[in-house]
Amino acid sequence: MARKILIIGGVAGGASAAARLRRLSEDDQIIMFERGEHVSFSNCSLPYFLGGHISSSDKLVLMSPEKFLKQYNIIARTKNEVTAINRQDKIITIKDLNSGELYTESYDKLILSPGAKPIVPPIPGIEKINLFTVRNVTDINNLHNAIQDKSKKIAVIGGGFIGVEVAENLKEAGYDVSLIEAMPQILRTFDYDMVQILHKEILDHGINLLVNDKVAGFDTNTVLLGSGKKVAADIVIMAIGVSPETHLAKEAGLEIGKTGAIATSPMCQTNDPDIYAIGDAIEVDGKLFDDKWKLALAWPAQIQARGVADHINGQDFLNPGYIGSSCIKVFNLNAASTGLTEGFIQATKMDIDYETVIITPNDKVSLMPDNSTMFFKLIFDKNTRKVLGAQAIGKGNADKRIDVIATAIKFGATIDDLTEIELCYAPPYSSAKDVVNMAGYVAANIADKSFSQVSPNEVRNLVESGAYIVDVRETPELEKGKIIGSYHIPLSELRSRYQEIPKDRPVYLHCRSGQRSYNGALALQNLGYSNVVNVAGGFLGLSYYEYFNDKTLNRNPILTAYNFN
Amino acid sequence: MARKILIIGGVAGGASAAARLRRLSEDDQIIMFERGEHVSFSNCSLPYFLGGHISSSDKLVLMSPEKFLKQYNIIARTKNEVTAINRQDKIITIKDLNSGELYTESYDKLILSPGAKPIVPPIPGIEKINLFTVRNVTDINNLHNAIQDKSKKIAVIGGGFIGVEVAENLKEAGYDVSLIEAMPQILRTFDYDMVQILHKEILDHGINLLVNDKVAGFDTNTVLLGSGKKVAADIVIMAIGVSPETHLAKEAGLEIGKTGAIATSPMCQTNDPDIYAIGDAIEVDGKLFDDKWKLALAWPAQIQARGVADHINGQDFLNPGYIGSSCIKVFNLNAASTGLTEGFIQATKMDIDYETVIITPNDKVSLMPDNSTMFFKLIFDKNTRKVLGAQAIGKGNADKRIDVIATAIKFGATIDDLTEIELCYAPPYSSAKDVVNMAGYVAANIADKSFSQVSPNEVRNLVESGAYIVDVRETPELEKGKIIGSYHIPLSELRSRYQEIPKDRPVYLHCRSGQRSYNGALALQNLGYSNVVNVAGGFLGLSYYEYFNDKTLNRNPILTAYNFN
């Protein structure tokens, strides 16, 4: 029996649900309502139009209402805003924004896919600035038109995905760009230690990056920061976050969850079983923790869009728990993350006895001319040995390593499993023992207490407290900088000179990447040293970790120089 | 108690075992014997020296005997060939190739890591040519010295990894290169349908690729082929395959397996428990089939090297079954494969009821300027729905997709699991629904009989037998070529014109990539057509499939033109 299925919101989730509904039934009437000017545009690609990667904003629109009708017999009405849901009579009211007229449509099933809107707080003086947000094609066209003059100074407020991508693209397009973040770091899908690599990349490319500094107010063409700093800005782009579009749902008496997003059943039904909700507007289950969260990502929206279409057509669907995998290009670096971060575990006071590993191997065989360091952090449960999350940053294939970890997490992998994943290898792509395998080995060694390590973020305290740090790099390498106060015994002399190292106190070893110092640490242990600790990530990891904060916090350096090679 | 551990073979496996042995014990005496001039060189990187990616052959050598001694207290003796193993007295005899002197060393534990040697069959006239093989740094230096004159014509015999990598690198370096393969295809880690993409790439880059043509003999500067063709060759590189180095093991009475490689216990012990064997010289278990195989890859060698060092030091080790993951760069294409191929299943007459899926999606959001087609083939068990293998080829990140599949296979993933892997997404990297997710959906649809498909390799028969093929691309796309005899109804007109399509015979639908025709196929099914079949990979996949064989077999084309975009 033919049904009438209405969809509120015609972007990612809504459009995908409509297409899937049509594949499952030729008979159903499917109407999609979109308040904005376009359906089915690539919202994730909006920043790349600013950077010139996408030549015309028209290209951002993947499907027109005409195409939807012709190819899929789906009615898509743009500039049509749904203003009310009458659940009793199963009727919605729509305002045609072209004519201003109100009209109604009845439904058998209703799908809410309204998305989330940029948060714009009532900051004092906000009326004095030229303010933009980035949500749809209209927004990006408005912004693009406002910055035809390349001498415009632009301030992007908020260092999340959209803020960073917009800032990067505008900088690449030649603008004077400031990126302002209230927290001590951008991109909280990365931990504080890892994100320093991205902080440096952003600074190096000439963006005026300001972290740990909240916007206190605005004046004409000026952002006023809590620190007292003033940032000149002809254009201000507000990207501090998004908030689920819940007003229609609320007014219709649909249940809102504790996160402030729409609550749904495991089948994505609201508390009205004829009304489904999907995408950025709903809250979802965590897969790695026992709670709800908001996850404004495209992958969950796609899963849910397909799932509700299946469910409406009598097929099974269970909205799964999500781990949250993401990636971002930041100038020359690829950065990816999956699962839990240390920061998230701490912020949510999760009861997990976790441990972390940082390694800095080459992304491929070091002989290949385009090899580069892959910064990799693994987070695992010390008791169950289960992998909880990972972050990778480098010029090389970071997303590959994180996709492997995301896959492993799906199957409940332990750190030991990571050593056994048979990844493909040829010199242009990886090493015989890939980054992921290596992280597994290091994690297993730590879990087995074969050796111990400290994170780059603990080294400053060690130096300041006068810890015994041995630099096992070979002598020529010292020219590239060293830890102030460290003792130098090259690995090649360690066995003949180890007696110089005291046995009655902790000994911290480091080399360039942590690899040779690991060998040195085990040698010392086998030679009777009971308290030997490896500096994870080595001088390389430490250089990144110290650099940004040395620059921005004007603190005393603990390294005589940085070395980023 | 300190032991004396001898290692025969100082390249990948041997050198890794030595380093791990040292990490586990400072006391053991560790001596490594290498017949060649170098230990610890990157054998996988040898071809890249020919292409100029690696500036000097010295760089191929990762560790010198001096470094092994100084950094790890490991004795490495190059140009020292072990000539006999006396198991009774646990003594080996070594010939110092510098002095010609014989000497002996006793052992507590012995590790065989002799590798595999290039096969050079006694082809008539072989003495008349300038013959090279590629196994070690000395080989590659000899070859490099012989081709200083860039006008040299080079024939590479054998289209396996080494043959293809050497041919590619020599072509990139500017030589006239022929690549000769006796079988109908190169690189049997890829199926015949997929490998056509690589055949085309090799042809397009000016290599004289000859497949299905066996070397019958040689004459001066000439390779004589079975077809009667003659290939001019100042230099001939023999790369038809490798054979495990088993002579020492055989002479010592150690067991050789049915594959001709050394047989070992699950702990990599030979039938003499004090003698271990690892790497290319041994046979291993398949993980996806119940038999032994030879797998000359670096990853297994690394696993075994570490494993035997652990086992010698009282730790657990079980040499796992292997799935065989690999990748190769072929000019501008990245190609990767894991698990079973259709060809391997057929050749080994494996009793599996398998099905395949071919998809040709974009590797990333199609708006991004460097997007490209990712050719992806998935092989799965129709009954258990388990993933058996996959192949990916494209300009984009093929190795990433295959690493994800390799990880999934490790955990026994089904095709349904593939749809649920939460991969990271941003426009520069992938699509919201990644290639792997999409392959899972298509496979599940096929397994559930939601729709059916044919492979590109079945289309020629369809055309020749007058099957009813509907091209659902939009009209402007027809300019890029079409299937001869196909009927054209654009997807946008399908619902108004479907009555033109007969209901009483099978209907084959295709578009550019297989995506729109899938939607069209479901529409027809829902409109009452009971026998609708999608052409997997679409016109794009078909173009590659037909191109190479049309060119080389002089057959009648079934396409009016090819379209590779």
From TrEMBL, chains A, B:
Keyword Flavoprotein listed: yes
CDD domains in the cross-refs: RHOD
Record SMART domains: RHOD
Name this protein carries in UniProt: Pyridine nucleotide-disulfide oxidoreductase
Pfam families: Pyr_redox_2 (PF07992), Pyr_redox_dim (PF02852), Rhodanese (PF00581)
Record-stated family: Belongs to the class-III pyridine nucleotide-disulfide oxidoreductase family.
One GO MF term: oxidoreductase activity
Residue ranges the record marks as coiled coil: none
Stored SUPFAM superfamilies: FAD/NAD(P)-binding domain, FAD/NAD-linked reductases, dimerisation (C-terminal) domain, Rhodanese/Cell cycle control phosphatase
Alphabetized UniProt keyword annotations: FAD, Flavoprotein, Oxidoreductase, Redox-active center
Top-rank taxon: Bacteria
Domain Rhodanese: 463-547
Position of the signal peptide: none
Entry-linked InterPro entries: FAD-bd_OxRdtase (IPR050260), FAD/NAD-bd_sf (IPR036188), FAD/NAD-binding_dom (IPR023753), FAD/NAD-linked_Rdtase_dimer_sf (IPR016156), Pyr_nucl-diS_OxRdtase_dimer (IPR004099), Rhodanese-like_dom (IPR001763), Rhodanese-like_dom_sf (IPR036873)
Co-factor(s): FAD
